[in-house]
Automatic annotation (TrEMBL):
<dbReference type="InterPro" id="IPR017261">
    <property type="entry name" value="DNA_mismatch_repair_MutS/MSH"/>
</dbReference>
<dbReference type="Pfam" id="PF01624">
    <property type="entry name" value="MutS_I"/>
</dbReference>
<keyword id="KW-0539">Nucleus</keyword>
<protein>
    <recommendedName>
        <fullName>DNA mismatch repair protein MSH3</fullName>
    </recommendedName>
</protein>
<keyword id="KW-0234">DNA repair</keyword>
<dbReference type="Pfam" id="PF05192">
    <property type="entry name" value="MutS_III"/>
</dbReference>
<dbReference type="GO" id="GO:0005634">
    <property type="term" value="C:nucleus"/>
</dbReference>
<dbReference type="InterPro" id="IPR007696">
    <property type="entry name" value="DNA_mismatch_repair_MutS_core"/>
</dbReference>
<dbReference type="GO" id="GO:0006298">
    <property type="term" value="P:mismatch repair"/>
</dbReference>
<dbReference type="InterPro" id="IPR007860">
    <property type="entry name" value="DNA_mmatch_repair_MutS_con_dom"/>
</dbReference>
<dbReference type="InterPro" id="IPR007695">
    <property type="entry name" value="DNA_mismatch_repair_MutS-lik_N"/>
</dbReference>
<dbReference type="Pfam" id="PF00488">
    <property type="entry name" value="MutS_V"/>
</dbReference>
<keyword id="KW-0238">DNA-binding</keyword>
<dbReference type="GO" id="GO:0140664">
    <property type="term" value="F:ATP-dependent DNA damage sensor activity"/>
</dbReference>
<dbReference type="InterPro" id="IPR036678">
    <property type="entry name" value="MutS_con_dom_sf"/>
</dbReference>
<dbReference type="InterPro" id="IPR027417">
    <property type="entry name" value="P-loop_NTPase"/>
</dbReference>
<dbReference type="InterPro" id="IPR000432">
    <property type="entry name" value="DNA_mismatch_repair_MutS_C"/>
</dbReference>
């Protein structure tokens, strides 16, 4: 060490060598019963984990106990660090028997972890949350757990870019890809980021400045509470389609076939899938494969059956990033699930059911048949009373199930502990038995729903054979993680059997040797004992020490006795220890072989888990349906004119939040492409206009995802998209003003909306001067009415827009939120201005509201009375001036 002029210890030298190869990771170094940190890693650990660090020899040092590894790894990973776990590769017994027993223990990098790659035997993947020191919790549920790679290519247009993306969730095996053109605002890319909510982004060096800037902003500013981890990577090598195809072919052939040729995960299916992908998507795939290889997780990319294209227009309703944010579908404005639609609808019991419900909410269905199938399943379960045997069976079935999706993936990677395997296998066996008996006993209740009957009949067949795997392992040994006693029939693994036989033979020799020991010390009942882990010790009282031969080896002593081993015992015991180490290695190899055999059934087990997730989501929606005031929507044929007819509808979230304090005021909605397709809504500030239009959108979304809705009745034709332009917010970090944000979002809606879309525009034009704002609002609204023919809800404070009802009779209706006024404040009376107090009725009625009563809101907000009075006077003067001009 040039700075301190001291010599590095062997352990420090070992750390420096490993650190040089993994400079971007915080390293946990196994040292006996502790994991140690050195240098900068120790200071990071001390800061982030709230532990002590101190100078020891040449480095700052910190440490944690081994049993807390998974908690502290999760803590650092959650804060965005890349973490490496370095383990001892040899035990004390093997070390003592080796030629280099005086050297430092051999250590190697055992595993790497980041936010999206937290999969490993040490990480206890089946636990969603961990109680950590100090009572805090460690959770990685804030993001979706996706690792996403983005690549772009110039589409030839002056401003257009085409993106290729691949998002993989290593913990569950999901792989989502897409290839799409995008506008300069990157709205399509933002939509996919909002839907997938990745934990990590791989960013190619060749990305344009605009795309890199957008991703940097999205990663940090938009997700400031829990930033997305980003990793800069070089552009993948293939410059042509043929080069990419060759690399992909080598990847497909790189390992033995795990699945049969008829499996959706076969090598042939995988290759066909990869070769049909566009080049930018292939480049993302190659980058992900190289990145995941360091984590030993690239095997996930071989699951061809898990490949899925991001939701297409033909299959799901389109909900872009703006709609997800403005309608507070996944999280509320404060970033919490509470107060969001997902928070209200989520009554799932399983982690994999919870993930699927999120997808259902963000991907409402488009086909009448599929929607009605889901509604029928919800109706079947919601109609059952709580004491119905079928409902009890399902509740019992879904309760206390571990995360089977993550567990199956951990087994597939061969990164699963024996405890976790036992938990997964027992849960699958329970599902098999319960569903089989329930299907036999509840055929009548299930007959009404094809989804339910399919689940109860298919899952038992898919899970057949699980019991055979359970029978091959010893439950007690699995629970304590003892792989040397794990297999009930070691003969299936010859190397394991050989080790066991050798150990048994040596143990038998030692037992026979006892008679010679007894004769030597003249003690007929003496036997071997174990003290502090030291086995095969012979205890001799001090009074009989003269009878102990000189070649006996003294191991330990107390005031009363001494403990020895004979040379024969010492030799045989060393051999036993060495064979035990060989047994441990053989059992580890047998364990990996056992997991490989189990993984050949991954495809059908995973299919069964997906069906159970479906059942969990149906149960969740059935819980919602049983709430008072919820009805089953009527879905009309897609061929009919687009329409939404809601009677006495309520906002699903606000209705729940108000239950304890007040009653939500229901309202009606009637929209039809061939009839009144546009509702212009005016009214006082804080009168409930925004809540009303959100209510309509959420009811439509809920109906198309297959949920009951909060209303007296609902009829609608499936809509292809919900577009929203709400709120006045600038985006300084993107260099976009309030008005620029308004117009860019409106421009995209104008380009994409169809006659089957629901368009919601809230106060368009308020980001600029009144005249320009009115002009833009008028022209835009007229386009939707006259050209697009989409179903439109338009909130405005511009009374002049009301004349569109006269221009398009039968297609446009003027509406406002009802209110009552009372005499103004006496303090304002002194300035002779009438500023009435407004009582909101929150009821939608026909007609135009003449005023917005903004001064009333100013008073409620606590603006000083003298300022409100001055504003009232100025308002009165302006109104008089305009009246005189007329």
């Amino acid at each position: 060490n040039q700075r301190t002029k001291s010599v590095y210890t062997p352990l420090e030298q070992q750390f420096m060598e490993i650190k040089a190869r993994n400079s971007d990771a915080v390293l946990f170094i196994e040292c006996g019963y502790k994991f140690k940190f050195f240098g900068d890693d120790a200071e990071i650990a001390a800061k982030e984990l709230n532990i002590m660090c101190f100078m020891d020899h040449n480095f700052m040092v910190a440490s944690i106990p081994t049993h807390r590894l998974h908690i502290h790894v999760k803590r650092l990973v959650n804060k965005g660090y890349k973490v490496g776990v370095v383990k001892q590769m040899e035990t004390a017994a093997l070390k003592a028997a080796s030629d280099n027993k005086s050297n430092v223990f051999t250590r190697e990098l055992h595993a790497l972890y980041t936010k999206s790659t937290l999969v490993g035997e040490d990480m206890e993947v089946l636990r969603g949350k961990e109680d950590a020191a100090g009572g805090d919790e460690v959770s990685l549920e804030a993001h979706g757990g996706y690792l996403m790679c983005v690549h772009e290519e110039d589409s030839g247009a002056k401003t257009g870019i085409t993106y290729g993306i691949v998002a993989v969730q290593p913990s569950t095996g999901e792989i989502i890809y897409d290839y799409f053109p995008d506008s300069p605002s990157c709205s399509e890319l933002e939509t996919r980021l909002e839907h997938l909510s990745p934990s990590e982004l791989l960013i190619h060096d060749t990305l344009s400045e605009r795309t890199r800037s957008f991703l940097d902003v999205f990663s940090s500013y938009y997700k400031s509470a829990d930033p997305i981890r980003t990793e800069r990577i070089p552009d993948p090598l293939p410059s042509s389609q043929s080069d990419a195809n060759q690399i992909l072919q080598e990847f497909c052939n790189s390992t033995d076939e795990t699945f049969g040729s008829s499996s959706p995960n076969s090598q042939e299916t995988l290759l066909q899938t990869l070769l049909t992908l566009p080049l930018p998507v292939q480049k993302c795939f190659i980058s992900l494969q190289k990145y995941l290889k360091d984590f030993k997780l690239d095997k996930v990319l071989k699951l061809a059956g898990n490949f899925e294209k991001f939701s297409t227009i033909a299959k799901f309703m389109k909900l872009n990033g703006c709609a997800l944010q403005n309608l507070e579908i996944l999280k509320s404005q404060c970033g919490s699930r509470k107060g969001s639609l997902l928070g209200i609808l989520d009554h799932t019991s399983t982690p994999f059911g919870k993930r699927l419900l999120k997808r259902w909410i963000t991907q409402p269905l488009l086909e009448k048949r599929e929607i009605e199938e889901r509604l029928k399943a919800v109706s079947c379960l919601s109609a059952l009373s709580s004491d119905q045997p079928l409902l009890k069976s399902i509740h019992r079935l879904l309760s206390h199930i571990p995360d089977l999706e993550k567990g199956l993936c951990a087994i597939y990677y061969k990164k699963c502990s024996t405890v976790e395997f036992l938990s997964i296998a027992k849960a699958l066996s329970k599902l098999h038995d319960e569903l089989k008996s329930t299907e036999l006993n509840s055929a009548k209740e299930l007959a009404g729903s094809s989804i339910l009957s399919r689940t109860f009949t298919e899952v038992p067949d898919l899970l057949s054979g699980v019991e055979d795997f359970l029978n091959q392992i010893d439950e007690k040994a699995a629970k304590c993680g003892d792989k040397t006693k794990l297999f009930t029939d070691p003969s299936k693994f010859p190397p394991v059997l050989t080790c066991i036989q050798e150990i048994d033979g040596l143990t038998a020799e030692l037992k026979e040797h006892r008679s010679e020991i007894r004769r030597t010390i003249q003690h007929p009942s003496v036997d071997y004992c174990t003290v502090s882990g030291n086995e095969f010790l012979i205890e001799v009282r001090n009074a009989k020490l003269p009878s102990v031969p000189a070649d006996w080896i003294k191991i330990s002593a107390t005031k009363q006795i001494c403990r020895f081993r004979t040379p024969f015992v010492e030799e045989k015991f060393k051999s036993i220890c060495q064979w035990r180490e060989k047994l441990a290695q053989a059992c580890q190899e047998a364990w990996l072989e056992f997991l490989d055999i189990f993984s050949t059934s991954y495809t059908r087990f995973h299919r069964a888990v997906k069906l159970v997730a479906n059942l969990d989501c149906i149960m969740s929606l059935a819980t919602v349906a049983r709430q008072p005031g919820y009805v089953c929507p009527v879905i009309k044929k897609e061929t009919e004119a687009s329409s939404v007819l809601i009677t006495q509808g309520r906002h699903p979230v606000i209705d729940v939040l108000l239950q304890e304090h007040a009653q939500y005021v229901p309202n009606n909605t009637e929209l039809n492409t061939e009839g009144p397709r546009c509702m212009i809504i005016t009214g006082p500030n804080m009168g409930g206009k925004s809540s009303y239009i959100k209510q309509v959108a959420l009811i439509v979304l809920m109906a198309q995802m297959g949920s009951f809705v909060p209303a007296h009745s609902v009829e609608l034709t499936p809509l292809d998209a919900i577009y929203t332009r709400m709120g006045a917010s600038d985006n300084i970090y993107k260099g976009r003003s309030t008005f620029m944000v308004e117009l860019q979002e409106t421009s995209e809606i104008l380009a994409q909306a169809t006659r089957r879309s629901l368009v919601i525009l809230d106060e368009l034009g308020r980001g600029t001067s009144t005249h320009d704002g009115v002009a833009i609002a008028y022209a835009t609204l007229r386009h939707f009415i006259d050209q697009t023919h989409s179903l439109t809800l338009f909130v405005t404070h511009y009374p002049s827009l009301a004349e569109l009802e006269r221009i398009f009779p039968g297609h446009v209706t003027n509406n406002h939120m009802a209110f009552m006024t009372s005499d103004g404040d006496t303090e304002l009376a002194s300035v002779a201005m009438d500023t009435p107090a407004v009582t909101f009725l929150y009821e939608l009625v026909r007609g135009v509201a003449a005023r917005s009563y903004g001064l009333n809101v100013a008073r409620l907000a606590g603006i000083p009375i003298n300022i409100v009075a001055m504003a009232a006077g100025k308002s009165h003067d302006l109104e008089s001036e305009i009246a005189n001009r007329r």
